[in-house]
Amino acid sequence: MGGPEPRPSGDRAMNQMIETIQDRHQKILRAVNALSRAVVADAEGVYSLQLSGFLRHKLLPHMHREEHHLCDLVDGITEQNPGVAATMVIDHQLVESQVGSIGERLRTAALENAQDSERRGVHRELETLLAQLNAVFGLHLRREEQVYLMAFNHYARRGIGSEIRLRMQREHGDGKTDNLSTDAAAGGIS
Ligand SMILES: [Fe+2]
Ligand SMILES: [Fe+2]
Asked: Is the pTM of this model over 0.85?
C-alpha cells in the first residue's frame, strides 16, 4: 500500500537487458565519437592507431556477436514484419564497409613518404568518413534498441525464457571483462 506498484519480475529482467544494451551502445558510441574527434584534430597522432584498433577489435566484434546470437531471436517475433533482422544486418554491412574505408585512409595517413597534398586530401576524406560513421552508427544503435525492446517485450509477455538470458550473456558477457573505454574516451576529449 502506498508505494509504487512493483513490476513483474519478467518486466524487470527485460528492462535490465535493455539497460545493459543501451549502456554498451553508449560506451561504444562515446569512444567512437571521442576517438574520431581526436583523429580529426591530429590525423598523424597516436589516436589513429587507437581508433583503428577500437573499430576492428570492439565495434566490429560487437556487431558480429549480435548477428550470431540475437538476429534469429528477432526474426522469431517478426514473422508479420519480415526483414527486421535483415535490416539490422544491412546497417552492420554499411558500418563495416565504412570501417574498412577509414582503415585505408588511416594507413595512408601514417605513411612516412606521403606528400603533403596527399596527406591533406586523406585528412579531408577521413573527416567526412568519420562524420558519416558517427551518424550512421548512432542512428543504427537507436533503431536497434527499439527492435530489441520490441523483441524483449514479446518474450516478456510469455515469460522470459532461459534461452534469451543465455543469449544475452553470450552477446554481452558479464559486463565486467569487456573493457570498452579508450584513453581518448577516458580522457574526456571533446
Ligand atoms: Fe548492431
Ligand atoms: Fe548493438
From this structure: no
Q: Which long-range contacts (CB under 8 A, 24 or more apart) does 157-166 make?
A: 159/10, 160/10, 160/13, 160/14, 164/17, 164/73, 165/13
Sequence-separated (6 or more) residues with CB below 8 Å from residue 186:
none
Distance of CA 176 from the midpoint of ligand 1 (Å)? 20
Q: What is the pLDDT of residues 53-72, one digit of tens each?
A: 999 999 999 999 988 888 87
Amino acid in position 132: Q
Residue 189 lies in a domain: no
**Ligand 2: distance of its center to the CA of 21 in Å?**
7
CATH number of the domain bearing residue 72: 1.20.120.520
